[in-house]
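Exercise: predict the structure of this protein bound to alpha-D-galactopyranose.
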Amino acid sequence: MKFVILTGIICLLVCGDALENGLARTPPMGWLAWERFRCNIDCKHDPENCISERLFMKMADIMVSEGYLSAGYNIISLDDCWLDHNRSESGQLQADASRFPNGIKALADYVHSKGLQFGMYEDYGTLTCGGYPGILNHLETDAKTFADWGVDYVKLDGCYADPSEMDKGYPEFGTLLNLTGRPMVYSCSWPDYQIDKGIKPNYTFIGTVCNLWRNFDDIDDSWVSVSSIIDYYGDNQDTLIPVAGPGHWNDPDMLIIGNFGLSYDQSRAQMAMWAILASPLFMSVDLRTIRPEMKAILLNKNVIAINQDPLGVQGRRIYKKSGVEIWIKSVEPSSAPDRSAAIVFLNRRTDGTPTRVSVILRDIGLTSLFGYKVEELFDGLNLGVYRPDDSLTVIVNPSGVVMVKCTVQTKDSIISEKNWNEDNALF
Ligand code: GLA
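Solution:
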């Protein structure tokens, strides 16, 4: 009996498939401080924008009052630079007291009182990337502290750590989080640091430990950065697509929509691509000053629905030529053996005039006999019913997208569509 219990405990610590926590069945959504607010700790000169409880409380207020929470963005998360440089006398992590005078538990309570979840940032190594205390050698204490504080989401970075140790360290911390009994979504930077060091990540294993994981460079405020991420995901899709699904997602990093670097079309492009990639959607933007048209992109229900589709399929690049790309993702509803699909037409050209793109639905795998109802998603335009041999033509702005959903039709839906059209006929 003792042996069985012991084996169970050892298995919990090292057996990958014991770690599934049942969370993040669709890509997590929220707000993350890093890309927009970085490590600004100068509250004396910049009290509105420094990393402080005031900033997070304000963002939490706006997430609720301005409709972000009801659109699905339900996590608000710390990133680096929230910590004091020293642990407490009893060895616990503690926040910088001048910037978080009420401590992290009080901030988490405030966030919960708004109906949001609270996200934490830490690092597997000796220090965070910004030079604050990491969790190495304190794994058990810190997992317990996070649970006591009411943390719902943990981003665990990988600076100041040995990437070859991560196959052991990240699962160990994941197990300790689970053992607290508090459900916490686990966001890992594990593969990113391994790839940097020339180690091939074991994604099958990582997917049993982490709910999401980074694998490429940090995003910054430019179209060049967004484009490089899109290329990485297209070029590595045969590795990345199979390992994504409900509970475990590739993370191409934050949404930078509403900041300084992207045009309106490029912002739509980021939103469309992150949706079709089934990426976590973490906004990193000043919600106090975001322009209305950028806010509308972040809140677009049709596009979010593609990201949050319950099938949890990561989209695939199926065409790339002369600056034009076509990406496709299977979505609900299905009518066996056919599935509906979301399609992004992405124009990487910058030669000043929109590009016309035509596809025959059959050529991109849409072969249902009854055809597809095609809707443009950003503006919600009904483009009509297309059969497999029909040609769909879209006009795509430079560094922009057109995104459509092709909903598979059935015999019944064709009849009801016909009745609807006749009932509502104007002439
Ligand atoms: C790394 C991560 C970023 C951010 C910073 C903080 O670079 O990849 O997302 O968390 O650390 O220092």
